[in-house]
């Protein structure tokens, strides 16, 4: 297909892509009925706040997200459906802005955030972060009003066969404020210009990187990626969710190492089932429930249990801390 028909605008090197993205958002939510309806519906979304171990979790009832929460991501199901991120399969109304050479900024029509984007690669390639962390940093430096996130192929990505990131309104996820408040109390080590902090008691265990140097961040991330790979040698990539946001010339990156895709509650039957498939947004503190019955009944104890199942265990997390303390 002629890709230019999917382009809302083709920026040149002097254009402000963040500014153009706001125009794209307004255009898509006014002219594309599906997006307009879902963003308007988001304003009336039901939420509950649960305070767990001194942390705030927002539980959001969002029925449109059932496509993601209940997505069939086994190899057979993926092979039998068209990839909904490939340009030729996008809805006729959907347009985007080219960015980072071969990515396309799209308005996500099934939002969690007040403004929710998908940034997908034009080519159909597998979800993978090892060679694409630099692109994630670049996107966050361009979209400074957004938090950019990555869901690993077995960590909530509903299209594990197509490389993509998502981005949502900065400040929406509780983890951003909570990290700023607790950073001075966390164990921290320095690698070149990168401050690496460890949240061992943050329920879902988190490794955070902060630096104004892209190259140093990429080096530190590669080392941590390698350490996590040794814990999961049979995985194509170590299981993780990543959040990233930029402030002027510096970045903050939160890595949530995982050991499991979906909790036992997802596979239960009847009243014991909770249809939840946590990904980056959930790890960031906004728990998405696509069914009203699950929204109403989920408890703090459920969330604690779910994260205990999904997140890296304490022993392995301490191994990672030990190894990071040795890097030079």
Structural commentary:
This protein is α+β, with helices and mostly antiparallel strands and 328 residues long. The protein has a single domain, classed as 2-Layer Sandwich (HIT family, subunit A), CATH 3.30.428. Helices cover 33% and strands 23% of the residues. The strands form 2 sheets. Strands 3-4-5-7-6-11-12-10-9-8 form a 10-stranded antiparallel beta sheet. Helix 1 (17-31) packs across helix 2 and helix 7 crosses helix 12.
List keywords for this structure.
328 residues; alpha+beta; HIT family, subunit A; 10-stranded antiparallel sheet; 3-stranded mixed sheet; 12 helices; globular
Biggest β-sheet, characterized? Answer: 10 strands, antiparallel
Rg to the nearest angstrom?
Answer: 19 Å
Count of distinct structural domains: 1
| Overall pLDDT metric | 93
CATH T-level topology: HIT family, subunit A
The termini sit apart by 49 Å
Q: What string, H for helix and E for strand, traces the elements in order?
A: HHEEHHEEEHEEHEEEHEEHHEHHH
What multimeric state do the chains show? single chain
Q: Could you give the order of strands across the largest sheet?
A: 3-4-5-7-6-11-12-10-9-8
Q: Report the helical percentage.
A: 25-40%
Low-confidence stretches: none
Classify the secondary structure makeup into a structural class. Answer: alpha+beta
Q: What characteristic shape results from the CA principal axes?
A: globular
The number of E-state strands comes to 13
The level-1 CATH class: Alpha Beta
Q: Give the percentage of residues in beta strands.
A: 15-25%
């Amino acid at each position: 297909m002629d890709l230019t028909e999917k382009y809302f605008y083709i920026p040149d090197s002097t254009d402000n892509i963040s500014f153009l993205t706001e125009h794209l958002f307004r255009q898509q939510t006014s002219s594309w009925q599906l997006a307009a309806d879902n963003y308007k519906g988001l304003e009336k979304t039901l939420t509950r706040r649960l305070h767990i171990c001194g942390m705030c979790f927002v539980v959001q009832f969002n029925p449109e997200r059932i496509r993601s929460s209940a997505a069939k991501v086994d190899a057979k199901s993926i092979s039998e459906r068209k990839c909904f991120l490939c340009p030729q399969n996008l809805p006729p109304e959907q347009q985007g802005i080219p960015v980072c050479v071969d990515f396309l900024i799209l308005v996500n029509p099934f939002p969690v955030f007040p403004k929710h984007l998908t940034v997908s690669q034009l080519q159909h390639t597998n979800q993978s972060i090892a060679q694409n962390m630099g692109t994630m940093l670049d996107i966050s430096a361009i979209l400074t009003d957004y938090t950019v996130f990555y869901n690993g192929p077995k960590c909530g990505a509903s299209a594990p066969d197509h490389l993509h990131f998502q981005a949502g309104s900065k400040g929406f996820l509780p983890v951003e404020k909570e990290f700023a408040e607790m950073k001075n109390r966390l164990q921290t080590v320095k690698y070149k210009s990168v401050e690496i902090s460890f949240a061992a008691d943050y329920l879902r265990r988190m490794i955070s990187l902060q630096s104004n140097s892209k190259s140093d961040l990429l080096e530190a991330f590669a080392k941590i990626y390698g350490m996590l790979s040794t814990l999961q040698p049979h995985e194509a990539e170590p299981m993780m969710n990543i959040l990233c946001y930029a402030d002027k010339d510096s970045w903050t990156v939160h890595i949530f190492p995982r050991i499991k895709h979906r909790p036992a509650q997802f596979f239960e039957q009847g009243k014991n089932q909770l249809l939840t498939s946590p990904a980056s947004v959930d790890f960031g503190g906004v728990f998405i429930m696509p069914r009203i019955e699950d929204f109403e009944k989920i408890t703090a104890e459920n969330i604690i249990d779910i994260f205990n199942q999904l997140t890296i265990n304490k022993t392995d997390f301490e191994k990672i801390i030990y190894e990071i303390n040795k890097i030079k």
